[in-house]
User: Fold this.
Amino acid sequence: MEDGVEIPPETLFDKILHWGLFVGAIFQMVAIAAVVFLPRKPEDQEPVEELQNGSKPGGGRHESASPQAASSGRKGKGKESKKRR
Assistant:
């Protein structure tokens, strides 16, 4: 049985890495628990009237372009390149 694989002794770096991974895992569990269990701050919550009306707080529209509008510009360019061939 002496011919087995030798495992080198644990170095200082190995110990630091070992305990650092434990600390990181505990920190992640605490952070996830805080997101799940802690209530929102009052200033972050949306007023009830605006939620019932279906409008967003701030009264604005969503300003990003729709996917159809973005894709329609690409289609036109593709047709022009086919005509040039």
